[in-house]
Fold this sequence. Notes:
Elements: H1 5-11, H2 15-27, E1 31-32, H3 33-40, H4 44-61, E2 65-70, E3 73-78, H5 83-86, H6 100-112, E4 115-116, H7 117-124, H8 129-137, E5 141-146, E6 154-158, H9 160-166, H10 177-187
Antiparallel strand pairs: 1-3, 2-3, 4-6, 5-6
Helix pairs in contact: 2-4, 3-4, 6-8
Amino acid sequence: MSDFGTENIENAYSKNEAIAEALLFASGGIVTLEEICLVLKVKKNEAENVMNRLTAKYEKRKGGIILRKVNNGFQFSSNPEYYDDLCVYFQETATGNLSKAAMETLTIIGYNQPVTRAGIEMVRGVNSDGVLAKLVERGLVAECGKADSPGRPTLYGTTDLFLKSLGISNLGELPDITQEENEQETEN
């Protein structure tokens, strides 16, 4: 007879945890807290508790898959600890191999969104059409509306893939730009 001890009891999933895990797996993408509430038929605070318990279980097992919070949702992701091992298989990541111009443009959008192409070009000082199109194509940037100025130019903002690529949950986790500038000035 095998010993199932207390470890297996601690690792046991509640029905809601199992359903939430199945939902995340089946979706293949980000599932919002509202969608989790709908599927579990629970209120927001109970859904948050379920997701916190599930996240803790994935952290405790220290496996290759983690449960990551992205904005107001959750998504399975590979553990960043194994990035170097996996990059052999995935030759190009979302932010990998971006040109200096693309990184500049992405930074401008990340800190100033929503922003127009003209706003980006004003900061960069050069035409950004091609770079912006490449960032949209790679899914790091998306159109997010129209400005209320003459000609109604398109506004751009970062996507959830941008957040995921940086390993952050929301834009509030971006480093303070003034802090970065001060550190660079101190080093020089």
